[in-house]
């Protein structure tokens, strides 16, 4: 009888003559997802299917005329400990004659990461019961191994977290109207944990709760879960020693009927006694500080201290009744901005930080800075402070004014004028926008100081500044340039129009006597900004040259220079 022909892709070619049973295995092993190795007693490979080649990431040539012990496989147990050759499945089967079932190994492959395999090995015996071959089946369990290890790690993390934070677990069977607490839940209330398996009825649960909290607890449990998926309460529970302890009681519906009714609820217990005591201490501190302190959820004001009444001038009781009432005190020009920012902070876990004005019932205006921060994203809780910064705001305004305004005349100072001057020259270069410059100097001003004193001289400067400001338009920039000199920048104004404005300025200076001093005159130089001006200094030189000519011509003159 002719020996069966063994497909080349399944057998080691040189061993084909020795694989007499392969014709029975061919159809099974050819399509099998498991790797299959058939090994002779001396360790030679008699049969290797494609799945085994793929699992071990070896070329088929590696198995030709080679022995199992010749392979340099890095084999370890599932925990990474190296497994010597004599403890591997093939050697065990040969040594004991017994099959190896479900052994798990890690093998380091050429591409680096380990592959995890489940191995079954069994002897094939001949007529005299001698082992003729060993069949080894390989199953890739890498994915399930990593998933199992991940679950083990997650469980360990959860165990450590529960041990560290001391949160208890509970579940409630809605259909049977009873639940069960784990050992930690009982330990939180001072019990030794023997009640961990105790089944609680609804009445048993209510009896553990402080009488003043039972109605709220019952309403939340019976009513709210019908429309929502979760609950969260802070309740006082009776301890084993009879004292009351604050416990945060959270739950979530984990299954419902097809009609949407809750079937099973699971949740946690957390000891918040110290937190409650800290809140009470903070409440006492908050009542004694000057800043407004408040705590609220998305739809209710939980607390605001007495400083609100002092700053807002309104009752706390009215605010508790209508938390949106605080907006009535916000200045109308700031109200929409504040309302929008506060609504955004309530809807998303972001900080709120706004500076705005409030109007007290007596009409006085105060500046405040309000800030809030999320403290419990799930409940939408926020804590906030409001500080009266009216005095600081006034001081800031004074500093800003000093940085930009000439303190004597109230006009722009030289540094602020320079900023506007550079902007105007940039526009002239880029868009060829017309602009002109007028430089004004009070004639014989030194005589005023020498004759009447510097106080009178300062009064003259203030009066001239007032007269000039009355002539110029709001877009024009008027500044005290230094001493008795003034400068005016006229945007969107050509030199001809600027010359006319300069004449009006000259006339307004000398049109009426100045108190104590009498008649005052001024000389003016006019020029225009040009796109080819390299700097503002070039424009000023032309204006200064025009002013010099006006003085040389007898003063009380307007001279215009364009080029």
Kindly describe this structure.
The protein has 563 residues and is of the alpha+beta class. The chain has 17 helices and 22 strands. The longest helix is centred in the N-terminal third of the chain and has 24 residues.
Total of domains: 4
> Largest beta sheet: what is the strand line-up?
2-1-6-5-4-3
Oligomer: single chain
Task: Report how far the terminal alpha carbons are from each other.
Answer: 121 Å
User: What percent of residues are in strands?
Assistant: 25-35%
Fraction of residues in H or I helices = 25-40%
Question: So, CATH architecture of the largest domain?
Answer: 2-Layer Sandwich
The CATH class name of the largest domain reads Alpha Beta
How does the major sheet shape up? 6 strands, antiparallel
The general outline is elongated
Q: Point out poorly predicted stretches.
A: 1-20
CATH topology of the largest domain: Alpha-Beta Plaits
Spell out the CATH superfamily of the largest domain: Reverse transcriptase/Diguanylate cyclase domain
Which structural class do the helices and strands define? alpha+beta
Count of alpha and pi helical runs: 17
Number of strands: 22
Mean pLDDT: 84
Report the radius of gyration as a whole number of Å. Answer: 46 Å
SSE layout:
Blueprint: H1 22-30, E1 35-39, E2 45-48, H2 50-56, E3 74-77, H3 89-96, E4 100-108, E5 114-125, E6 131-140, H4 142-165, E7 167-173, E8 178-181, H5 183-188, E9 199-201, H6 202-207, H7 211-227, E10 230-238, E11 244-256, E12 262-271, H8 273-286, E13 292-296, E14 301-304, H9 307-312, H10 316-321, H11 332-347, E15 352-359, E16 365-376, E17 381-388, H12 390-404, H13 414-431, E18 435-442, H14 445-452, H15 454-471, E19 477-482, E20 485-491, H16 495-510, E21 522-528, H17 536-552, E22 558-560
Helix pairs in contact: 14-15, 15-16
């Amino acid at each position: 009888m002719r020996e069966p022909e063994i497909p080349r892709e399944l057998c080691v070619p040189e061993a084909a003559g020795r694989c007499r049973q392969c014709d029975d295995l061919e159809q099974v092993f050819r399509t099998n997802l498991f790797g299959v190795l058939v090994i002779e007693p001396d360790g030679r490979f008699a049969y290797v299917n494609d799945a085994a080649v793929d699992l071990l990431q070896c070329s088929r040539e590696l198995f030709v005329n080679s022995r199992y012990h010749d392979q340099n496989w890095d084999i370890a147990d599932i925990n990474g400990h190296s497994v010597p050759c004599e403890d591997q499945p093939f050697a065990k089967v040969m040594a004991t004659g017994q099959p190896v079932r479900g052994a798990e190994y890690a093998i380091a492959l050429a591409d680096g990461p380990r592959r995890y395999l489940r191995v079954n090995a069994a002897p094939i015996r001949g007529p005299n019961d001698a082992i003729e071959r060993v069949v080894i089946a390989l199953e890739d369990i890498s994915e399930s191994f990593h998933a199992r290890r991940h679950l083990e790690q997650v469980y360990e993390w959860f165990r450590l977290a529960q041990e560290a934070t001391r949160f208890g677990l509970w579940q409630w069977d809605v259909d049977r109207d009873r639940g069960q607490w784990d050992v930690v839940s009982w330990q939180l209330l001072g019990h030794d944990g023997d009640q961990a398996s105790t089944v609680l009825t609804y009445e048993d649960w209510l009896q553990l709760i402080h009488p003043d909290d039972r109605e709220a607890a019952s309403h939340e449990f019976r009513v709210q879960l019908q429309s929502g998926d979760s609950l969260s309460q802070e309740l006082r529970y009776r301890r084993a020693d009879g004292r009351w302890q604050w416990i945060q009681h959270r739950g979530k519906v984990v299954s419902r009927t097809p009609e949407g009714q809750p079937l099973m609820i699971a949740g946690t217990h957390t000891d918040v006694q110290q937190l409650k005591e800290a809140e009470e201490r903070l409440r006492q501190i908050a009542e004694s500080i000057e800043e407004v302190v408040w705590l609220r959820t998305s739809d209710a004001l939980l607390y605001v201290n007495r400083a609100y009444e002092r700053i807002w001038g309104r009752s706390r009781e009215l605010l508790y009744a209508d938390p949106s009432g605080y907006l009535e005190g916000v200045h109308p020009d700031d109200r929409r901005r504040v309302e929008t920012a506060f609504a955004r902070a309530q809807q998303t876990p972001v900080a709120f930080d706004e500076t705005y004005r409030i109007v007290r019932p007596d009409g006085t205006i105060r500046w405040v800075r309000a800030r809030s921060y999320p403290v419990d994203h799930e409940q939408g809780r926020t804590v906030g402070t409001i500080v009266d910064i009216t005095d600081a705001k006034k001081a800031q305004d004074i500093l800003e004014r000093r940085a930009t305004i000439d303190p004597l005349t109230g006009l722009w100072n030289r540094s602020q004028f320079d900023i506007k001057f550079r902007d105007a020259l940039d526009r002239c270069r880029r868009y060829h926008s017309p602009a002109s410059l007028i430089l004004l100097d009070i004639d014989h001003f030194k005589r005023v100081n020498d004759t009447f004193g510097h106080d009178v001289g300062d009064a003259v400067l203030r009066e001239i500044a007032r007269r000039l400001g009355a002539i110029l338009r709001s877009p024009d920039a008027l500044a005290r340039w230094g001493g008795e000199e003034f400068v005016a920048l006229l945007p969107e104004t050509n030199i001809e129009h600027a010359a006319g404005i300069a004449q009006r300025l000259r006339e307004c200076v000398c049109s009426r006597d100045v108190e104590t001093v009498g008649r005052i005159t001024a000389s003016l130089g006019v020029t225009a900004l040009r796109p080819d001006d390299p700097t503002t200094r070039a424009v000023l030189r032309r204006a200064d040259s025009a002013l010099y000519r006006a003085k040389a011509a007898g003063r009380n003159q307007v001279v215009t220079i364009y080029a």
